Protein 1
Amino acid sequence: HIVPFNTTLSLHRLSLSHHKPEIMAERLVLKGTMCAHTDMVTAIATPIDNSDIIVTSSRDKSIILWKLTKDDKSYGVAQRRLTGHSHFVEDVVLSSDGQFALSGSWDGELRLWDLATGVSTRRFVGHTKDVLSVAFSTDNRQIVSASRDRTIKLWNTLGECKYTISDGEGHKEWVSCVRFSPNTLVPTIVSASWDHTVKVWN
């Protein structure tokens, strides 16, 4: 089904019982534009508790914590800029409690940030090339990262690398994305790569 271009976008869903598209009540309308980064924005992280904050990363080497005001004139304001990376910040995620941000950068490092203070509380050093993707486990006790060095690294929150999956058993090209499964009973990591494969680890 082709949705005609308009200033608003109607969401369509397929009714499995009638096999016909249904128009949902929701409509996507631009509510505001937030400007503070000075280069390409690379990632957005939102908290699971629906609080009025978001975090963004950018090629301007910074991370910005935004407060959503939902005001017509300024839908959100930059509350804090987190700096410390020496190259593009490629990815950013939030802990499940929304208190910490985790970033990965082309400087080869991960950083853990206390959002209340804006301070980088931990550096994760071990990758030899750009870090492309980072993730928290559901309980926030473990961290996983993926890199252009073709490795996946599992860390604790103290910044200690506990395990490395290298190209011998892992991917043959850049590892572009990595995520934890939300299932805490069977801890699982899923990775994707430029080698055209998705791999599952536990």
Protein 2
Amino acid sequence: GKIVNIASMAGHSARRSGGAYAVSKAAVLRYTRGLAAELASSNINVNAI
């Protein structure tokens, strides 16, 4: 199976405005990495675009 999460470059760096948006996208990126590691043994691919 496959899971695709929607991320943003804003998750990699913060700007003066949009802090909450950047934090939420950083969380999506970390969640994606953790879930990918957890589900790899079940042949489930997890990615962020």
Protein 3
Amino acid sequence: MNKILDKIVQNNIENITLGKKASYIPALANVPDGIGIAVRDSHGVYTSGDAERMFTFQSMSKIVLLMLALKDNGFDYVFNHVGLEPSGDSFNAISNLDFNQAIKPYNPFINAGAILTTSMIKGETYDEKLKKIIDLSSCIFGRSNITFNDEVYVSERESANRNRALAYLLKEKELLTGNVEEILDLYFRACSLEVNCIDLANLGHFLAFNKDACGVKGDHLRIIKTLMLTCGMYDYSGEFAVRIGLPSKSGVSGGIVSCAPRRMGIGVFSPRLDEKGNSILGVRMMEELNKELELNIFR
């Protein structure tokens, strides 16, 4: 496996400057280039490149937020407030909430949906809710030293005009309850949680087997994987499903977490993005790994 991963990294490293970094969050625009991949299967963890380099969770945190929302509220409550459908819009789109007939966000993996699932995490205080995010992440990653990137957190919070608009629209539609600024702050904290490719591979492996673990029900993992397949790669999700055919979730930090059901978890990273907000080299590495190991669930 390590030879396969090394080959994939070497095949792509010459294109490490292809694409643009996420400039709408100023702190992400200045991160150094890099490329990494990790795989976890029943035999162990395999890595290549910058697999241990830390970057921020960003939209991949929406998986953990949805796990907690489902754990605290159950399927019916969550999906009475958030849809199960692909949007076809960009991840931070505001139009379907404001102008169309939709009365709730299309799915939990666009920003409006994730802000709403964040509001569903139960706790008496902000710190109690944040501890739930930390504890679940720690259990899934298999490490206790969960950290946050304060520079990215502050940068995201101070440049979050669109997310703030989405949250107040949700409040106006009486979908979101609670203190809007506190909910947004919790969401930004989750996005700024620091991970590496190994953490993502552990998350993918956790998802791969539908087992009750870390307080999360296996049935909820099945639901989350289905949404990852249909909605996890922003408005590139359909093409990604055709080309690669694995439940996956990307983030604008350049990470992609993926799972091959009942086989393995995968984490890839490279910070330069395509026009959809997905890591260019991350997608290419996933394509190559899929071909090498025949992972596509539709094959």
Protein 4
Amino acid sequence: MYKASIENPAGFWSGIASSEFYWKQRWGDQVYSENLDWFKGGITNVCYNCLDRNIDAGLADKIALYWESNEPGFDATLTYSQLLQRVCQLANYLKSVGVRKGDAVVVYLPMLMELPITMLACMRIGAVHSVVFAGFSSESLAQRIVDCKPKVVITCNAVKRGPKTIFLKDIVDAALIDSANKGISVDVCLTYENQLALKREKTKWKEGRDIWWEDVVPKYPTSCDVEWVDAEDPLFLLYTSGSTGKPKGVLHTTGGYMVYTATTFKYAFDYKDSDVYWCTADCGWITGHSYVTYGPMLNGATILLYEGAPNYPDPGRCWDIVDKYKVTIFYTAPTLYVTRYSRKSLRVLGSVGEPINPSAWRWFFNVVGGSRCPISDTWWQTETGGFMITPLPGAWPQKPGSATFPFFGVQPVIVDEKGVELDGECSGYLCVKSSWPGAFRTLYGDHERYETTYFKPFPGYYFTGDGCSRDKDGYHWLTGRVDDVINVKGQGIYAFVTPVEGISYSEELRKSLILTVRTQIGAFAAPDKIHWAPALPKTRSGKIMRRVLRKIAARQLDELGDTSTLADPGVVDQLIKLADT
């Protein structure tokens, strides 16, 4: 299939799009163009394909969503027909308050059922949702509101994360004040009452703007006409951090994203109709869009949503959930592996968020998967829409730590610093040549930045920003970000290093680290200077915020950007003092 997808991409993707999805009108003669348009002229709707199409295929009574609360003992389910009714009620409400095709709706919700309901309702009427992770600060939320100018903001009053209550409505209130001071006012703030976290009488309220979800949405009809849209019409906006701290509004469009996300899910996880699928990502990230909501739902899957913390009330919570729902496909980040234990229901494991080192891979395979579950070690980005390099279960032997080979239609290349393609066994910068259906189309309101960031570094290629090695067997090994190396005035690369317990700082260790990077990744990534750091700025999801390290090294301390997602913001002050020495 891969060979066919490269030799005849138009025929390959046209065949999948025609046979697997509903189109009100077929696209024209040109399936795709090199400016990334796919299926242009085709008329469809993602919500219809997620719900109505599957219901018509006999899945009306199949469980679409299992929901597990942060608090043990509280759960809920929705079938595909019930989900469609809930989606239509919200869609009708949104139309009643003036939301139309192309309008933006900002969504600041935790992992409640109301989150995918909101996403699907927006798509049903052609609105463009922008989901913001419900852990971002009011400042970050306000930035996104100002940028996309939504008609409506949808949130809930509060959420419990472990034992802690987060007052989301207070954060939204502050963001709306901030955005109004910058000239962008929002007339409607639809608020869901999360009774397990906070009763409505304790919620701060602004009459005339704030509306309780439960007071209005259930009153609307349970059917709603579909707004048919062009394949190249905007689908959603998802903001990701930029090198300057200003968020980038990644814009995905309808047809290509729908086809690509559904197809990657189907093959990368070897999906079967009997599977129960759980991805631990939040819908505030691209993984939650593509592989919590749209990819699985377009395949008619049963999806598990979990509201809470993975270790609450104890480290075995996740595995209690796996047992309860008989989860068969489990997709999570390497930083969560240490809290997992083997479960017999599992059939396929997936890894996302960061490269998985060989020892973690073996632990995941042997301990979590009981030495029987294939691992889909996926590499992709917010910008790519779906998996780009990933194993296909059973298709070829796996190598611990390798993302293996490209997915259908993807042509990865490794280039040197001059943009020259490297053949065979090599290390360098990972780029992609030619187009694929899931690619994003622009950065909202800043197309120049889109071209400068992704296409100008190596003309003729999409630059991923990642380093990659290819071994003698053609397997790909992702080495992490290369556009986040800490380069000061073009002169040198810095590294902040935290030794493990029992290892002391020394000149010998410094030289050893430089040699290791030079040997395993390549000379282009070898650090010129190493700082011994007590800790690194990590987000609550476990990712290192490299942008902060780069700004500290460059002494651009007034350009650190938003650091509200750091697990320990005090680390930043420690690193600043360290850099001064």
